[in-house]
Structure formats: C-alpha cells, structure tokens
What we know:
Oligomer: heterodimer
Structural class of chain B: mainly alpha
Helix content of chain A: 40-55%
CATH class of chain B: Mainly Alpha
Largest sheet of chain A: 13 strands, mixed
Radius of gyration of chain A: 36 Å
Number of domains of chain A: 4
Distance between the termini of chain A: 70 Å
Order of helices and strands of chain B: HHHEEHH
Strand content of chain A: 15-25%
Shape of chain A: globular
Number of domains of chain B: 1
Amino acid sequence: MIKRWSDRFFKWFCHPDYYLDIMGDLEETYKDRLEFGEKRTQWKHLFSVLQLLRPSLMRPFFCKPLLISKGMLRNYFKIGVRSLARQRLYSTVNIVGLAIGLAAFLLINEYISFERSYDRHFSESELLYRLTTDQIREGVVGTRDAMSFNPSGPILADELPEITNYTTTFKFSELVFRQNNQVRYEKMVVAADSNYLELFDYPLLQGDPKTALNAPDGLVLTESKAKAYFGNADPIGKEIEILSNFNRPFKVTGVMKDVPENTHYKFEMLMSLTSIEDQLARDKWNGFNYYTYLKFDPNADYELLQSKLKGLLRKHEGSEISLEYNIQPVESIHLYSDFTFEPEIHGSHKAVSFLVIISIFVLVIAWVNYINLSTARAVDRAKEVGLRKVIGAHRKQLVGQFFTESLLINFFGALLAIAIAELTLPFFNNLIDKEITKHLWNDVGFLQAVFIFFLIGTFVSGFYPALVLSGFKPVAALRGKFRHSKKGVVLRKGLVVFQFVVSITLITGTLIVGNQVHFMQSKNHGFDMNHVIGFANPRVPGDQVTSLEEKLRLFHHDITSHYAVRSAGTSSVIPGGASNEIGSMSGGVTLVGIRDRLDATIYIQFINDQFNETMGLDLLGRDFNRDFAQDTLAIIVNEAFLELFGIADHSNVIGEYVQFGTSPENDKFKIIGVASNFNRTTLKNSIEPTCYFYDNWFNSTVPRIINSVVRLEEETYLEGIDFIEQSWQQFFKDAPLDIVFVDERFERLYKEDKRFGNVFGSFSLLAILVAILGLFGLSSFMATQRTKEVGVRRVLGASIGQIISLFYKDFLILIGISVAIGAPAVYFVMNGWLDNYAYRIDFPWWILVLAGLLISVFTLVTVGYQTSKVALLNPAKTLKYE
Amino acid sequence: MKKFQLGEFEEIVLLTVGVLYDEAYGVAIKNEIENRLERKVSVGAMQSALRRMEKKGFLDSRLGEMNKKRGGKPKRYFTITAFGKQALEYSKDVRTDLWNSIPEIAFDLKLV
C-alpha cells in the first residue's frame, strides 16, 4: 500500500528522462531489502522517494518561458496602468472600495487580537486557572461566582499534586489613604500573598518579588501610583497611612510597572495578604470573597481535575453545603467568563465573533465589487481579448495580464488602506474606548497582515474575471456578436444579492442593537430615577460608626428641611451599580414553617427607615421604624425573593420568619414588609432576590451606612445640590463629597452595550458604503451598455421616469430576494443576541421592512442617477450609427 | 571563477563511478560508497549529483538491459568522460599543491 502510493507519487513528480532508471534502482533496492520485513521496507521505500524529492530531479511544473519573460511582464503593467487610467470611475470605485474594506477589516482585527491577548503575557499563562464557586440547586448549577473561600488555595494544593502553586487574593472595593494630611480614595487595591508574583510574574522595578508581599503592612505600588505619592523620590521603605479598616501606616516594599490594559485582574497597588489576617480568619469558610488562582502541572488533565474538585468543598465543609468548586483557565476569563463578582466588566466572545463576521463581510463585499465590475465590463474588453488571441496570445498570458490588473488595483487599494487605517485610528480607539496602539504604519504585524490580504485579495478578486475574460472565442468576440453568457449574468446577480443580504443584515443588526440599548435606558426600572442622587458617606473606623450614624441622621434632617430635597436615606449600595457591588449570601435560606431551605443566592442590602420612601418603592406591610427596638431583627424582602419561593400571595408572609444558613440555631428574621421590585443593576440581569436589613442590625460585619441616597425636587434640584454641599461642609468638613446621579450610573452600565452598538453601526455603515459604491459602478456600466436601447425607447416616446423604472425593476427583484434570504439569518442571529438580556425587546420585524426600504431607496438613487445620465443624452447622437 | 565546478560529494561520486568502471549504475554506486567510506548516502543527493555532473559533462551514460528484478526497468550505466577526468585531476593537483605548500613546522607545532 505504502509502496504503491509512493511509487505513484514518484512517477508524478519525477522528471520523465530520469524516471525509468531511478525507478529501476528503487525497485532493486526494495527487493534486496525485503528480507528485513515487508512493512519496514515499505517505509524505507517511501523515505527514499522523499529523499528524491528535490528540484534537480523534478519535472518542470510551470511553463516557465511563458510567464517569466521580463518584457512581457513590463507589458502587462503598461497595459494594466493604461486600462486603469482610461476607466477612471471604474478604477476609483474599485480602489476606494477595496481600501475601505481592507482598512475596516484590519482595524477590527487589531481590536480582536487585542481582546484575545488578555492574560497571555504571563509566562506559562496557559497553566493558570481561577478557582470559582458554583452554587448547585437541586442538582442544577445556579449562580456561578468568580470568588472562592480563602483557605481553599493551600488545602487544594495539599490534596491535589497536580496543583503546583496557588495564590489567594482579595480585592478591596475602596480604601482611604492618607499621606501628609492629604486624603485619597484608592479603588484598585488588591491584597495578595507572596505567591502572587510567581504566578503572575510582573517584574518588579524595585524590591524583591519573593519577599515584597511577605511581611504584614507591605505595599507594592505601580509606577504611576509611586509617582503620584512620592514624586521622583525613592518610594522604597516610605510609609503611607491607610485609614479605613486599618488605621495604621503601611510600608512600600516594591515598585512595579503599571499593569497592562489586557488583563482581567487590574490593580494599582498590591498589599501583603498577611495584613488582613484577622479578616481571613473571620471569613474562613463563612464567606467566599476571595479570588484564588491555581497553577497546574503541565501534564495535568483539566477535565479530570475539574471533576476531582467538584466534591472537595463538601469534604471540607460538610455534606450540607450546596457549593462546588470549579476552575476556569485564566486566559479565557476576559472573553468567556460571565460569573457574578467578576473583578471588572469583561469582554464578550460573542461581540468579538460578531465583529469578525462584520469585518469579513466588509472585505468580501469589496472583492465582490471588483469581480462584478470586471465581468460587467467584459464586453468592453472582448475585442481586445479577441485581437490578442488572433495575434497569438496564449490563454495563460491573458490570465497573467488580467491578474496584473487585479494586482495593480489591489496594490493601490492596500496603500490607500494603510493611509485610511492610520488616519482613522484615533477615531477607532475612541469608538472602542481602548487605546490599542498609537500608530499602524510602522507596526510590523499590521503591515504583514496588509501584505497577506493584498495577495489573497488579488487572487480572490482576480481569479474569476481573468478566467472569464481570457476564455472568449476570438471569432465571436471580433464579430461583435458577443453577448453575456447566462451563467455570467446569474453569477453577477447572485453576487449583488449577496451584497444586498449582507447590507440588510447589517442595517437590521445595527438598528436592533440600538433599539435594545434605547429600550434598556428608557424602560421603567421599578422606580423613578430622575433627580435621585447618591454619594458616599464619610468613612470612619469601626468604633466610631455609632457616632457617625447619629451625625448622619442630623445631616439628613438638615438637608431634607430644604425645599428642594424631598427625602434622604442610607443604603449599603447606590442603585445603578455593577452586579458585584451588592453583598450576597449563598448559605441557604429558609422561610420558617412555610418553605424548606432553598440553596439560592440572596442579595442583601442594608437600608435605613428612609430608603424605601426615597426610592419611592411600594411597600406591603410596614417600613422599618427607629422607635421599634425589635426591628434590628426584622427584614423587608422584595417580590423577586418571594417569587424564588414561588409564593404568589405576598401578604401571607408578613409576620413570618426568615432564617439564613443551615443551622436551626441561627437568627430568625421577621418579615415586616414586602417591597416592590426594582432593577438595581443592568437590565441584562433579572431582578435580584433581595433582603433588606435594617442598618442598625447589631452583629453585622458588613459595612452598612456607606452611602446616602437622596431624592430632589424636579424643578429646583440644582439648588438642592448646592444646599447639600453647603450642609456637608458644616457636618463633615474634611471628607470629600462626590455626588452622582443615579440615572447617570445606569447610563454607565449600558456603556458597553452602547459601545458595541456604535462599533457595529460604524462598520455596518462602511460595509453598506462599499456595497453602494459597487452598485454605483455596476449600474453605470449597465446603463452605458444599454445606451442604444435607451435611445430607441426615447425616440419611441418613453419618458425618463419610465426608463429609470425599467432599470430599477431588475434591482427591485433582487432586493426582494435578498430580504427573503436575509430575514431568517437576521432573526436567528439577533434573536440569539437579544436572549442575553433578561429584559429584551421582541424581535422587531418592522425593522426588516425598514432595512429593505432603505436599501431600495439607496438603490433607486444610484441607479436613477446613472440611468438618467444616459437617458438625458440626445437620442439623435446615441443612434447616429444605427 | 573556478576552472571546474566539482563539490566534495560530487568528487566522491565521480571517483566511485571510475572505480566501478563498467558496472556503475545507481544501486552499485550507492553500495560502493557506503562500503568504502562507511557513511550513509541519500539516494536523492546521489541521483541529483549524478544528473548534475552529466549536465556539466563530467559523466556520460547509456541505458542497459531490462531486468525482471528491477520491475522491467533498465539500468543506467555511467562512465567518466575525458572532461570528467580532467576535473578529477585538477582537483587532485590542487590538493597535492596545497599539501606540498604546508611548511613542515606547521605539523611540528601541532605535536607539541
């Protein structure tokens, strides 16, 4: 078998002059060797054949003398340039179209490769995994959390030999730093153990990565933070005081380069994990608020480990627990992980694939333009081809000539594409809101991509026209009896339909994304968010919380006395935050006497007696009351919480008790009210089942009165803000005041979706522009070709309008077909996209109609313009020779 | 420009063709080199060297008789041409010349 194939292969490539005797030699050697076993000999035979595969023994594969003649090549270029120059409109349409297509394609690909580069810059990044926690409800995976319990790392590393290293980290939401009496809020601080810098090997500019995070109260700053705090002085060994949580000075033990943009776990300062030992001990197996990363042995089997990990948490924590460990590769977190409590708003692989598809479409549309225009022009060139053939041109030579033309057009297109990409880069960076790179023209990778796609483009776009044009029969072509072949027309129409389908799909897609974003922004979130503001209350050490509460109450009393302030309350979270802002409990929850324990994530929010009123929520039952001492053990639940238990009659649960965790000794909280649902975060998520605790619940370790929420009067809200600022100065002189509008916070949540819509829209526009450009060229040629027909019709009394509609009718049919093809595609893709949102619009069919209409109008304008140019010619002139 | 284009491997092949005199065809040449020089010879390298030298005019060839063992394919026998002989002599002369030009002392020093 092997021998037969290798013989055949040898015969195929070997020079016929050498074949006979070498084959004889091979045969002889083969027979000599047979005694060593057939299989082995056959392989040896194949090996010998491969050794013979060298240029000096091969037959000639190309007709070298035909193609590589210098004079002929020069002639190709000369003819090519001349024909481009003669048909200025046609060349411009092609070059501009190709340039836009290529530039858009390459820009998007720069962005995509950036998105895909996340977390790949660490050495052995493919071995890094994040330990996550899944919640299992009745055997089904419920909430998936990016965080894990803090003792997990060391325990797992002990248990599983495949884990070679681990690190436990904690991300602070905010810390207050003080240096030289200047207070700064830092939101990007991460506490990490000394393994962290081994797994994520950021090089330290100063300090030793092995010891920098060992001792308690050590800080590693990024370069820019070091500059902000210490200017040009050497920061090592210097001290910064951290007020909140700590109230003690920290020592700088290292400086590192700024963390790059393309990592999912960004920070500006690292704190030694030993500094929060007491918190670690307290949280232990009670709260999983930690990001744990594991490093695996290169030979470890990911899936096997995953299944091994599943049961381990139950082993450590008792069989009662409904949580399971899981792991995910660090490299795929940015694009694929969609867990709760992600450290940052992550990218989306779906958005990336959408963009890949759009970018390919843009490019292909540009290529299609070239193919369409060159085949449509075939008539113009038929005589030229015929004559060349008569004189003796070989078909291969003609193919070469037409390829040269496509090469020239693609070459100019590529040059222009580099210029366009370079010039539009700032806009593009702006559009995607990330600075990927400053310049493209000197970026080697980019230029390589340009070159590669220039070659591919030349081949793809040049292949078909070259084949068609070189295939004409000289006699027919010279007699002028030349007509388009049926096949050619069908192909061209097919390509036009393809362009229309893509255009319609992109228009619809853009409009649907826009509609969904608009829907989310304008949908009622369950409360009136206009003129509601929020701000952070001053931070104080734990022992002063009570006095702060007192002071805050006075402050709220003071501001609500102003006519522009309607009401003010406190809350642990301001509405409109990211999904990870709110606290949650996953230890199980029981409705005592009504429903058994449910292993679900319940979100918890601490509010005071004014919050519900400020938000304007409907309340069944009663609100918290400061005068009732027992309200420390009372809670208000929201409707989503009851829906989770499947309770329809909300008034029934009032006065009943809620218990958290598994132990029957745990505190029982009395339900005093049911609050109406409102969306605290993006409408991508459904409403969180929430329990509202009264903020003076005594044994809470969670910060409670962190924020104020204030509702202002519509007419005079600006005066209200002025007054709040004045009053703040009187009450809390030193603390910074940072007022945000709740509606603006929501706006920010939809930024990512909006950006996606903008990117989608911009590139769709380009794709459509390129398609219209092609249509412009195509209809121009079709009109010119039918000049005589138009002349005759005019003479016989047709009006210009009639002639235009005659031409237009052809395109209208194509548009109809395109809508029919495009509709299911759009429905399939965009409905899937809409399904990502808990609150989504119905699939808007009218948008398809609108897209079809838009395309029809664009087509009418281009076709009408080109046709009327021909129709307006004097028939006497166009028919002169008939 | 060198007077004769003759590489090291080509020279060995050419000499072996001479050694085998009237029996120099592919398999025989290969075996001869492998036996004498105790080194592996790639069929490809050898065949392309043979054809190259034939083109340069160092070798001449004729097709021999058909043979059943060879699957009915003929052998191609190679013989050295006068030009090939000149090339070999030239190459040998150059070497002898070089040998003779080495001062005795160069070898002596090596021994120390």
